[in-house]
Amino acid sequence: MKKYKVYGIGAALVDTEIKVEDHELTRMDVGKGLMTLVDEARQGELLSHLKDHLVKASHASGGSAGNSMIATAQFGGPTFMSCKVANDADGDIYVADLESAGVDHCLMQGRAEGTTGKCLVLITPDAERSMNTFLGISETLSVDQLDHEAIAASEYLYIEGYQVTSPTGREAAIKAREIAEAAGVKTALSFSDPGMVEFFRDGLQQMVGDKLDLVFANEDEAKGWAQVDTVEDAVEGLKQVANTFAITLGADGAVTWDGSELHRIPPHKVHAVDTNGAGDMFAGAFLYAITRGEDFPTAGRFASLAAGKVVANYGPRLAAPDYPELRAEFFGD
Predict the structure, then answer these.
(1) Tens-digit pLDDT profile for residues 195-240
(2) Which fold has domain 4-12+62-112+138-331?
């Protein structure tokens, strides 16, 4: 038995979620449904536009891989997180959230001066999330934040595709994959965002290496990576870079490839109010399920159920008591 089910690496961000109308996105020149990297000045400009909304804003620690590692841990699968936060109030929030969820991390070594990364998440009435991210100190995440022993003590390494935008983060992701491969640890990666696939393809290919054990992608990311127009063709494209994969299809559910068979996963029908964190929850729940020995159809159905619960509420995660309840509801334990 390995000590950890999953070792994650990704950007540590504190989210500010604000409800907006579509015309406000247009007025602020925000790309709808995308993750856009911004500097601190641009984030401040956006907040000044939204000052009337801030009284209703909600704050939570976020970051794609962090959300996934918290989900896996809360369901009952021990995880470890490599990330970087500053010695500031937001950094305190992030560390406290990891520890309350039972996620081990690399931040015990101390934290540097600087600014913890922040993500301004704008939610429109159709539940779509548009993210404007100032990476702050997360942009300097590097091989120094890797814990070689913890990687080797994990069943899976999970890499957040967003790391491709940072030279040191990309280097750390590649090094982590190499450590995992040498130790016989399975490797997984999320493509994270259509923009990562479109604008950072060469860097993502370096992170992928020869072939990964598992890839997570949504429909647009999968089509973009394979450079095709249909999910069917995207499936064939992903087979070239991953032994197994899951493609989420929003309200249409998901498809999973277990290495020999393609499985259609039905959607969990809900009234969606906020899609922020849906893909992160899908990955975290899926990783929990397969590392407890479930097959891909079962893992896909559980992940779809968990992601549906997230989009039916505001915020990127569920309340702590909801995780064991959901596990018991689905698995009966």
Answers:
(1) 999 999 999 999 999 999 999 999 999 999 999 999 999 999 999 9
(2) UDP-N-acetylmuramoyl-L-alanine:D-glutamate ligase (3.40.1190)
